[in-house]
Amino acid sequence: MHETAGPSPRRAAATRGMAALGAYAALSAGFDVYAGERVQQYSPMVLAALSFGCVIVVFLGWDLVTRGPAEVLRPVRARRRDVLALNVTTAVGWLTMLYALVRLEPAIVNVVGLAVGPVLTVLLEPVLRRGARPLRAETVVSFAITGFLAVLVWASLAGRSAVGGLDTGDAVIGLLLTLVSGIASTGNVIFSKRLSDAGFGPRAVMSVRFPVTLVISWGAVLLSGQAGELGAALPSAAVLAVLGVGLPLYLIQVGIRHTEPVTASLFSALSPPLAFLFQLTDARLSVAPLTLGCIVAITLLIGVGLLARHRHERRALSSPRAPAGPAYRQPVHPDREGARPL
Predict the structure, then answer these.
(1) What is the radius of gyration, based on Cα positions, of the chain?
(2) Distance of alpha carbon 278 from the chain centroid
(3) Quick check: helix, strand or coil at residue 222?
(4) Are 74 and 189 contacting, i.e. CB atoms less than 8 angstroms apart?
């Protein structure tokens, strides 16, 4: 029996989504390593204020000129709570991650912050997106990842990470900040998907997701007397704005639009092996075999989860009607930004 031509656009959209998520994973790894080195020189809040300031000027300015204020504010009017939740989770996720990089090696911040996402997505998504249930394989993989995360936590506390011996207080604070960042990032993915399900494309979401981050970071810089660092930190912040914030967040928004949240969380967690390789360029850090072993194991588990999702999607495409299994189908909504796929 031949497969009909109807599902082809859906398969092409999924391919675009996974390609965007793969590019996001690589940029995310590079960001963690570069930011981990920069936060040793400049205040994380100064870097955040400048980076997110540049990003919001570009995306919001572009949207105001091309679509007008009424269209830019459409997500706020239609989905006020989701936009607010997206703003809060964006601010919490990014700011806690920057401060965690002051205390921990980038690969551990990357892997804990991202790999905790699939576990939390499995637990939270049925609550935040009614009717959504991950595949059984995705659930098993997500909880297996938790075990390796526990080993990484122990390695950091025992001084067996690339940073070497750490003050216990610093290690605990760094890990707590990383876990908070991971929790916030999980909510970020889910609320981004809710907006995408409502028909808002990547440009529309990017234009309204940063105001809370901007207010918090600039308020903290001005109130703490750190304004004197702004000029010196601007070149580093500009690099972070383009390669660490603006482009990666746009790519993950494209990926979320065309895939399910648990797939996005699993795919995004492929960046830790790259972070491990990138961080070898940082003279502060040494090779940590235990970290590498855990990262490889987590990456293999992620691959298993992605393969399970791919097989499920292929069965769904070849079936004349939706399967009755535990997984869900991605809803299709009109693109309110135009006919061009993003």
Answers:
(1) 20
(2) 18
(3) helix
(4) no
CB 75 within 8 A of CB 204: yes
Q: Is 282 helix (H, G, I), strand (E, B) or coil?
A: coil
Query: What is each CA distance from 323 to 273, 304, 312, in whole angstroms?
Result: 35, 21, 9
pLDDT surpassing 70 at residue 302: yes
**Residue 118 token pair:** 């699939």
Neighbouring residues of 293: CB distance < 8 A, sequence distance ≥ 6: none
Q: Report the alpha-carbon distance of residue 147 to residue 108 in Å, rounded.
A: 14
pLDDT given for residue 8 in this prediction: 61
Q: What b/e sequence results for 167-190 when a residue is b if at least 16 CB atoms lie within 10 Å of its CB, and e otherwise?
A: eeeebebbbebbbbbbbbbbbbbb
Q: Give dist(CA 105, CA 242) in Å, integer.
A: 22
Token code pair at residue 96: 């806690």
Rounded-to-integer distance, Cα 110 and Cα 315, Å: 33
pLDDT in tens, 17-57: 878 888 887 887 788 778 888 988 899 999 999 999 998 88
Q: Who contacts 342 (Cβ-Cβ below 8 Å, separation ≥6)?
A: 201, 202, 203, 254, 257, 335
Angle between helices 168-197 and 106-128 (to 10 degrees): 40
DSSP annotation string for 68-127? -HHHHTHHHHH-HHHHHHHHHHHHHHHHHHHHHTTTS-HHHHHHHHHHHHHHHHHHHHHH
User: Letter for the amino acid at 52?
Assistant: F
**What is the pLDDT confidence band of residue 143, given thresholds at 50, 70 and 90?**
confident
Closest CA to 133 of 141, 145, 144, 125: 125
* Tokens 């308020």 sit on residue: 219
Distance of CA 223 to the CA centre of its chain: 29
